[in-house]
Structure formats: structure tokens, C-alpha cells
């Protein structure tokens, strides 16, 4: 229990009635007006639970409001605070000074009305401060006097109220209540960067604000939480798990991990580096180094002259990481001091003893050296124990996505970090069998090579696909990457890679790649069917399925059904596929269409779709795909390519006049030029005949079977330019027979290709 919490509980105990003997975590009190309050005993600041009351004239604002049904601290029970347990609405407050708490309790508990003095008795200074020479390096006394005034109290959602504290107080919180979320990147600072940080502290420079997130009660199991590194080994990328229980209350560091770890290493830990020309596996390959300062060294000051060679960003104090096994020997006017020893003197009295023992009693120093050592040691003590050098903001939101967005912005550093980047860090830290980052990048390269898509295949796509294939919520949200889901993704990773790569090959074989791959989302959708339809066998795709899938893909693109509300579309598709693959193995196109129809996103090909189809320019990127709806083959085998049935030169005005087209029909006839209504897919032999003969002769040579196959009118009299409107009308009717109701006739395969005449 911190000193400020001890004083808060003592104040309550002398002015209110304890409900029951306090537990290790909660002390409950009845106020003079009958209201109850619960004080959390295991926090560094004053955390309080109260009944839900009107906030009119309240001297502070709660950080959270809990409905009666909402879970909360499990120690709020019928024994120590019956009105604050689940079943009652409550408020949650945080106070940073005793004065803040007193003002609040006078308002909440109505002390003055009952004639009870509101002013607390003067608090005694803690008596258990560590004596010089007996201070463990990892112990730091908590000083209640460092609390900030109530005017700095932050109201979440209103404004950002930064608080300040000392380096020593901050260190005292690390690995006790301050921990690292898995979304943080590994520690990467060099010894030179640590030295620069300590030099900035000594010079009184700002070292940047920190940002914490007070983890909501009941959400501990949703997060992978790690301890700060105290003894860092160069090349290590892993932090130890926190070892916290589900009931432990913690704050996660959203911004400032590198700085806090550096302070911890410099004051309480070590930095281990590899020796040159030594193998990592050998025992003598590593040197464990700790931070020293030469107290007798005069700090370099900024030059007054513009031409001075001293850089303003150079270190002004003499810090150095030294092999722990061979500490530096002070020679001449040198006084090497282990920086972490400053933690053994939390009080001014102990500071003065340290100055006497280390400086005044040192007979090897000159008077100048002694003066400088005295000044530097006092400055170091101030930098650690006195200066309010650590500014921090605490976020209290229950929204994981808000917190993640804060983290992304706080860690922007000039290069925008995406959610997928951060979540990939979570997965990489969690997976044991695979390096998630490397595996993902390799898969992205393979899919890109197969599909050459218009839009890049990204890490976010792979993460969404992995979630989707495992029947999990596939949104890129923090709550979807809890430890249980991450384990599922690792266990299924080999299958995920296999399915996605096979899907990419299928799509390429069908002709959906490059410009024709209108959306990478179709990879996810098709992959799910292939995954579900081949649960234990080798991945394959039946020929009958290929036709259904090709029609489905073309219609998805043609009707723009993946452009909006993809989450709903994907969920509906997945549910339909999963439900209809029970006892069957074919692609359930009709059922998918029915499910989409219930959302108002019809897959059916109607009369309005036919008008759009026929008026599509023959040069459009999706023209070949649309034309394929009347043919049985995949796009690469689409009878070579789509060609205009009537050559473009015939639509020139002079040609139409020579053909006898009246001026009144001229605009209508020219309007058909280069439109899909005139499109056919001719194989090599058909093209040779088409280009070798006059149009009318070629038309007469086409067999009835070929006309039916290409949806061409049977009447030879219509194959003249002056009869083109009638020809178009007749062909539109033939196309309608094949295309309108396409989904309903899904089980009827497109006819076989006849031999050309």
C-alpha cells in the first residue's frame, strides 16, 4: 500500500465507520449520511468506489459509471460494501492528493452537516524510509508529497490533464502497476540513447510525456501483458509475462516504453552486449554493463561563440556503461559513481550522508574536483528524487479501439502505424511455432505473384482472412486478438496458407487476376468455400462448381455487391456456406443468392441488368467477364477473346449510307457500335471465316448450332446493316433467355461448344 493510500484510509477510519475489517484489496466505510464508499488498498493513487448519486455541485468528476449489471472489482461484495456490489449502479473515482479526497468526502459524506471536522490531522512522514547503505537497488520509497494539485485532475473525454511526478516514484510503479501491452514493440534503444536520456535529465530538459491506460476491471484476461526489462540483453526481443492474476489492477503503457525501460536499466538494471569476434553461444561472449557517472567531471556548457565545435546535442555529463565485473577505477580527478546507488538516499538527510561519504571524505580529489563532484551528485539526486520530470496522462476509456487509436497516434513517429502492424506484433510475441511476421510476408508475396491484383494484398487482408476461415469475428479490432483467438490462428496457420494459395491458383486459372480481379475480398470468400468443402481431403474444385463460381464472381462485380457493408455480406455468405455444406459438397450459389436477396442485395440477373449488359462498351475491363456468362469456359479459354460481331468500320456514316441505312435510323444504328450487344467470342477457325467473307456471306455460313451457341438470331434476313435494329432486338431476346434468371437456372450447365460450320 502506498503512503498516500495509507493516509487516505487513516483519514476515513477516523471520521467514518468501517463496514467490516478490510481485505487486502478493499476497505469499506459507512459515511455519516448513510452512503457507502470503498477504497482500493493496492494502488499507488486513491481509487474509490461510491454509490451512484447526483453530481450537482460535485467537486470532481468520476472516471467511470457502472450500471447495476456491469461487472466490477470482485472484492466489492456483500461483506465489505454491500451497496457497491453487482446489482447496484456505482461510480468510480480517482484522486491524486489527499486534499482532493477530503473535498470530495465532505461533499459526498456530508461530514459538516453531522458536525464532524473535515480537516484532516497533519500526516506524519513515513518512518520506514531506507537507511543509507542498506537500500536494496530495486526499492524506491513512495513520497506522498509529490502528488499534484487537484486543479490538474483529468476528466476523461473532456480534456487531457497531464500529471507530473518524479523518476523515483515512476520507477516504484514499474512492474508493480505499470506494465507493457503486447502491442508494444520490443525494446530497441542503444546504450548511447540511454546515456543521452540521463544527460537530458541532468540538464533539466523535458524528456517527453508518457501515456498510460488504466485497464478496466474484468478485462485482464483479454490482454497479453508483459513486464518491463530490467536486465536487457542485446538482441533480445521478448519481455517476460507479467504473472498477474485476473484480479490484479494494472495500467498499461501506451507511450513511453523505451524511455521507462531505459530509466529502469540505468538505475536498477544492466545492459548486456556481445563482445566482438565472440560466438553468441559461448559463456565469455557477453559483458553485463551498468551505468556509471564521473561525478568529478565538469559538464560541458553550451558555447557562446557561433564557431565553437561543441554540438548543442552532445552529452554534457560523463556517463558510461561499464562492465559490472570490472567497475571503473577513479584516477586523478575522477570519481566514478554507480548511478543506481542514488536510489539508496530517498530523503535529503540521506542525500547529505551520501555526499559526505562519497565526496567530502574522498582525499584523492582536488578541491576543484570535490566541488564539481558535490554539485553533480546533488544534481543527480534532484533529477531522480525531486524534479517533476515525468509528465504522464492516464486514459480511462473502456473502448479497446479508442485505446488502440491513441496508441497508434502516440507512436506515430513520422511513419503511420496501422492496426494490423500493431496486432501483428501481438501475434508474433504469442506464437511459438512460427514467426508470424515472416510467415505473413511470405504468404503476401506468393498471393501477389499469383494474382497481380490492382490493389495490394496487405497484412490486414491476411489477418482478416485467417480470422474469417476460422469462423471468428474478422474485424481488425483489438478484442478479436485475445490469447484464445491467437492460439487458434497459430494452430490453423498451415491450413490457412494452403487454402489461400490454392484459391489464388484457382482464380488465376479462371482468369480473375490483374485488372479482372475486381476485389481481393473475393479471395477470402472463395477460400472459405474451398476450405469448408474439403475439410479433410486434398483441395480440389469440381468442373460444375467452376461454372457456378465464375457466374457468381462476375455478378458480384457487375452488381457491385462488395462495395458496401462487406461485413454483413461476408457474414451472410459464411453462414450460408457453412449451413448448406452439411451433407453436400457443391457450391451453393442459389442459396447464397437467396441470402443476399434478404439483405436487399440481389444476385439475380433481371431485365434492367440485361440493358446494362448489352450497353457495356466492348473495351470495358469487365466486358470479357460479362460475355463469359453465356459461355461455359473460364476466361482464359473464352474462345480467344471478345470481338465485335459487326466490324467498327461498318458504322461510319459513309458505310451506313452505302448499306442503305436511312438518315432517320443512323443515330440508333451507330449507337450499337462497340457495345456488348454485338459481342461474340469466336475461336480461331470462326475468326478466319468471319474476316475472310463479306458479312452477309459469313452469316449465311454459320450453322444453326453455332447460332444458338452464340445467341445469334436465326433469320438470315436480319444480317444486314439496315436491319440492325431488328437484329439487336432479336438478339436481346435470345440473351434474355439465357441470362435473365441465371441464378435460378444454376443447376443447368451452359451447353457444350459445337463444332463451327
Q: How would you sum up this structure, described in words?
A:
With 757 residues, the chain is α+β, with helices and mostly antiparallel strands. The chain has five domains: 3-114, Yope Regulator, Chain: A; 150-279, no CATH class; 284-300 and 313-388, no CATH class; 429-603, no CATH class; 640-739, no CATH class. The chain is 37% helix and 11% strand. The chain contains 25 helices and 19 strands. The strands form four sheets. It has a six-stranded antiparallel sheet with strand order 1-2-3-4-6-5, covered by helices on one side. It has a six-stranded mixed sheet with strand order 7-17-9-12-8-10. Strands 11, 13, 14, 15 and 16 form a five-stranded mixed sheet that branches. Strand 3 and strand 4 (46-51) form a beta hairpin. Helix 10 (436-451) runs parallel beside helix 13 (493-510) and helix 14 (521-533) packs parallel to helix 16. The radius of gyration is 38 Å and the shape is elongated. The protein starts with a helix and ends in an 18-residue tail after the last helix.
Low-pLDDT segments, ≥5 res: 113-160, 303-308, 747-757
Helix coverage percent? 25-40%
- Structurally, how many domains make up the residues? 5
Average pLDDT rating: 82
* Largest sheet data: 6 strands, antiparallel
Lateral arrangement of strands in the main beta sheet: 1-2-3-4-6-5
Secondary structure: number of strands:
19
Oligomer kind: single chain
Number of helices: 25
The global form is elongated
The chain-level structural class is alpha+beta
The Cα radius of gyration reads 38 Å
What is the beta-strand fraction? 5-15%
In whole angstroms, how far apart are the ends? 95 Å
Amino acid at each position: 500500500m502506498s503512503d498516500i493510500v495509507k493516509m487516505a484510509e487513516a483519514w476515513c477510519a477516523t471520521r467514518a465507520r468501517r463496514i467490516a475489517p478490510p481485505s487486502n484489496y478493499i476497505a469499506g466505510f459507512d459515511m455519516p449520511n448513510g452512503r457507502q464508499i470503498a477504497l482500493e488498498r493496492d494502488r499507488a493513487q486513491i481509487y474509490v468506489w461510491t454509490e451512484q448519486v447526483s453530481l450537482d455541485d460535485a467537486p470532481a468528476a468520476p472516471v467511470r459509471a457502472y450500471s447495476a449489471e456491469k461487472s466490477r472489482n470482485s472484492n466489492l461484495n456483500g461483506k465489505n460494501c454491500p451497496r457497491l456490489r453487482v446489482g447496484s449502479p456505482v461510480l468510480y473515482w480517482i484522486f491524486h492528493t489527499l486534499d482532493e479526497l477530503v473535498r470530495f468526502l465532505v461533499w459526498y459524506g456530508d461530514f459538516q452537516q453531522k458536525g464532524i471536522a473535515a480537516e484532516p490531522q497533519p500526516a506524519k512522514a513515513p518512518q520506514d524510509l531506507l537507511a543509507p547503505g542498506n537500500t536494496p537497488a530495486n526499492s524506491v520509497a513512495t513520497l506522498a508529497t509529490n502528488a499534484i494539485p487537484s486543479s490538474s485532475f483529468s476528466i476523461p473525454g473532456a480534456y487531457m490533464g497531464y500529471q507530473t511526478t518524479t523518476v523515483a516514484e515512476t520507477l516504484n510503479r514499474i512492474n508493480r502497476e505499470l506494465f507493457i501491452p503486447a502491442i508494444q514493440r520490443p525494446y530497441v534503444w542503444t546504450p548511447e540513447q540511454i546515456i543521452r536520456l540521463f544527460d537530458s535529465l541532468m540538464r533539466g530538459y523535458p524528456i517527453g510525456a508518457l501515456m498510460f491506460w488504466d485497464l478496466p476491471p474484468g478485462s485482464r484476461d483479454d490482454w497479453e501483458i508483459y513486464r518491463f526489462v530490467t536486465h536487457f540483453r542485446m538482441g533480445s526481443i521478448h519481455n517476460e509475462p507479467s504473472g498477474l492474476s485476473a484480479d490484479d489492477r494494472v495500467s498499461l503503457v501506451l507511450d513511453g516504453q523505451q524511455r521507462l525501460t531505459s530509466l529502469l536499466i540505468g538505475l536498477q538494471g544492466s545492459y548486456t552486449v556481445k563482445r566482438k569476434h565472440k560466438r553468441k553461444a559461448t559463456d565469455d561472449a557477453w559483458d553485463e554493463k551498468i551505468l556509471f557517472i564521473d561525478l568529478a567531471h565538469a559538464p560541458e556548457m553550451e558555447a557562446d561563440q557561433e564557431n565553437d565545435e561543441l554540438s548543442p546535442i552532445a552529452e554534457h555529463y560523463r556517463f558510461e556503461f561499464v562492465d559490472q565485473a570490472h567497475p571503473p577505477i577513479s584516477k586523478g580527478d575522477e570519481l566514478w559513481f554507480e548511478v543506481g546507488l542514488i536510489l539508496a538516499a530517498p530523503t535529503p538527510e540521506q542525500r547529505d550522508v551520501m555526499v559526505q561519504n562519497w565526496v567530502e571524505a574522498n582525499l584523492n580529489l582536488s578541491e576543484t574536483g570535490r566541488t564539481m563532484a558535490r554539485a553533480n551528485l546533488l544534481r543527480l539526486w534532484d533529477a531522480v528524487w525531486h524534479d517533476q520530470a515525468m509528465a504522464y496522462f492516464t486514459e480511462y476509456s473502456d473502448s479497446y479501439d479508442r485505446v488502440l487509436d491513441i496508441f497508434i497516434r502516440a507512436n506515430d513517429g513520422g511513419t503511420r502505424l496501422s492496426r494490423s502492424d500493431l496486432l501483428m506484433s501481438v501475434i508474433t510475441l504469442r506464437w511459438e511455432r512460427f514467426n508470424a511476421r515472416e510467415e505473413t510476408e511470405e504468404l503476401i508475396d506468393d498471393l501477389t505473384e499469383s494474382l497481380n491484383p490492382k490493389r495490394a494484398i496487405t497484412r490486414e487482408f491476411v489477418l482478416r482472412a485467417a480470422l474469417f476461415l476460422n469462423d471468428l469475428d474478422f474485424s481488425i479490432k483489438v478484442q478479436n486478438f485475445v490469447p484464445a483467438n491467437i492460439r487458434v490462428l497459430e494452430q490453423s496457420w498451415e491450413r490457412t496458407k494452403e487454402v489461400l494459395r490454392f484459391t489464388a491458383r484457382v482464380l488465376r486459372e479462371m482468369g480473375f487476376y490483374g485488372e479482372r480481379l475486381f476485389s481481393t475480398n473475393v479471395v477470402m470468400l472463395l477460400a472459405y468455400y474451398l476450405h469448408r468443402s474439403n475439410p479433410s481431403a486434398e483441395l480440389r474444385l469440381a468442373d460444375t462448381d467452376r461454372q457456378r463460381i465464375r457466374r457468381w464472381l462476375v455478378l458480384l462485380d457487375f452488381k457491385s455487391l462488395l462495395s458496401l457493408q462487406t461485413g454483413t455480406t461476408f457474414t451472410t455468405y459464411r453462414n450460408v456456406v457453412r449451413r448448406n455444406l452439411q451433407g453436400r459438397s457443391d457450391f451453393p450459389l442459389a442459396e447464397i443468392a437467396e441470402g443476399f436477396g434478404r439483405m436487399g442485395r440481389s444476385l439475380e440477373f433481371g431485365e434492367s441488368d440485361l440493358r446494362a449488359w448489352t450497353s457495356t462498351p466492348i473495351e470495358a475491363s469487365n466486358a470479357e467477364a460479362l460475355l463469359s456468362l453465356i459461355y461455359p469456359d473460364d476466361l482464359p479459354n473464352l474462345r480467344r477473346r471478345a470481338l465485335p460481331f459487326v466490324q467498327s468500320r461498318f458504322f461510319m456514316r459513309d458505310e451506313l449510307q452505302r448499306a442503305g441505312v436511312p438518315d432517320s435510323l443512323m443515330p440508333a444504328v451507330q449507337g450499337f457500335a462497340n457495345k456488348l450487344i454485338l459481342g461474340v467470342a469466336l475461336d480461331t477457325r470462326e475468326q478466319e471465316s468471319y474476316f475472310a467473307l463479306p458479312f452477309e456471306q459469313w452469316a449465311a455460313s454459320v450453322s444453326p448450332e453455332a447460332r444458338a451457341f452464340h445467341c445469334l438470331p436465326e433469320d438470315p434476313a436480319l444480317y444486314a446493316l439496315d436491319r440492325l435494329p431488328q437484329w439487336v432486338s432479336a438478339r436481346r431476346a435470345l440473351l434474355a433467355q439465357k441470362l435473365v434468371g441465371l441464378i435460378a437456372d444454376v443447376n443447368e450447365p451452359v451447353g457444350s461448344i459445337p463444332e463451327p460450320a
